[in-house]
Design brief:
Blueprint lengths: L20 H10 L14 E2 L11 H9 L8 H14 L3 E5 L2 H12 L5 E4 L4 H9 L3 E4 L20 H11 L6 E5 L12 H13 L3 E5 L3 H11 L8 H10 L3 E5 L10 E5 L2 H14 L10 H13 L3 H20 L12 E5 H4 L9 H13 L1 E2 L1 E3 L1 H4 L1 E2 L5 E2 L5 E5 L7 H16 L7 E5 L10 E4 L1
Parallel strand pairs: 1-10, 3-4, 5-6, 6-7
Antiparallel strand pairs: 2-8, 7-8, 9-14, 11-14, 12-13, 15-16
Helix pairs in contact: 1-14, 2-11, 3-11, 4-5, 4-10, 8-9, 8-12, 12-16, 14-16
Bound molecules: ligand F0G.
The site of ligand F0G has 15 residues, from helix 4 and helix 5.
Length: 456
Amino acid sequence: MKTIIEPFKIKSVESIRFTTPSERKKILKDAFYNTFLIHSQDVLIDLLTDSGTSAMSSEQWAGIMRGDEAYAGSQSFYKFESVVKKITGFEYVIPTHQGRAAEKILFSVVGGERKYFPNNTHFDTTRANIEYTGAEAVDFITEVGRHPEKRADFKGNIDLIELESFINEVGPDNIPFVMLTVTNNSGGGQPVSMENIRATKKLCDEYGLKLFLDACRFAENAYFIKIRERGYESTSILEIAQEMFSYADGCTMSAKKDALVNIGGFLAMNDEDLMMKCRNVLIVTEGFPTYGGLAGRDLEAIAQGLEEVLEENYLQYRIRSIEYLGEKLLAADVPILEPPGGHAIYLDAKRFAPHIPADQYPGQSIVCEIYLQGGIRTVEIGSVMFGKYDKDGKLIPANLELVRLALPRRVYTQSHVDYVAEVIIEVFEKRNSLKGMKITYEAPILRHFTAKFEYI
Ligand code: F0G
């Protein structure tokens, strides 16, 4: 097979700024060793997130000009709505300014004290929006999904045995719905199989429960189903996506991922009563139902992006780029979460820096060193992001200590990826000199965004 190439050519470019090691040392110190606090002009290659960082196509930019900015009944809304309906099959579509706005609306309607929301693994904003209402967010990832070093095709699957015993324990009346995050971002960008989605739906039906998808990366998940699950080899991505959504009663979506745009999201569902309640919150917090926190031009760009993301050449290139980086790192024995995910490579910090205990945040130390070494921005997904404290103020660490290298969509080329691999390998070679870190400031919720650190 020949090299899988970027299925696009470049029409407009943006320069990136090189910095010296001593400049980076100062920049990192001034940012309190938190990569969220570094200015983007001080970053050479930005792998902080794949969210809102996509390069839009010329057709999407053309859509920006076509946007109908009418307050009510914008044509752009109807175009957006019809694409979302085509892919998801859901009756009602509510545009929001991003994924967490959809979460905020949905959970403020269905959440509350003594309510439980099971998921394969909740993303941090989903968990935060649930907990903010007083409800509980619970994760039921399968056993294999808990082991970064073990390979399996669908490590994003939810554990149905644990889920069923949980339903019996708390009672189905206290579970407004079950969620599945496709792909499972916090668990390594790992896909959920069609079989697992179908079986989750069946279990939900037995208990009269609804199922919602957190659909941010639905197209990447659909591509994994196509190449890994028997029976889907010759099914189109659109048909696979349609089948995935057919088992659900609704979804939350951050269009900043698989809709290939810089801002946007939506909430979609079949239940009219629930939709009316959500729409009322939307009007108070986001905007009128035909724009919901977005401009008409944003809705155009989303509609176009949702068509482009279903193209198989694009998804093949996308998934292969991540796998290519993973292969380079594995060849140098760098411990990563295996197999490579759909949008990111996750370094396994526990094996990368085993001399740093969880309460000294090994992932954060690796993140800092990668920036110092090569100007690359990454993010810790471990005890900084998910750690909690017990009654005595002792850290309850996260299950996994990961460093995420998320690849923006259609932004970097193969030589950028080669450079990233070289820098990570250099950091790995001097891993024994990495130092533990402590937190000197933290916010009570979603602390990783603003926390300040120091070396111990
Ligand atoms: N759900 C998942 C699975 C996500 O990955 C994200 C965002 C959201 C919900 C929230 O969407 O950002 O549009 O409000 N993930 C980004 C990331 C931030 O870096 O992984 P949002």
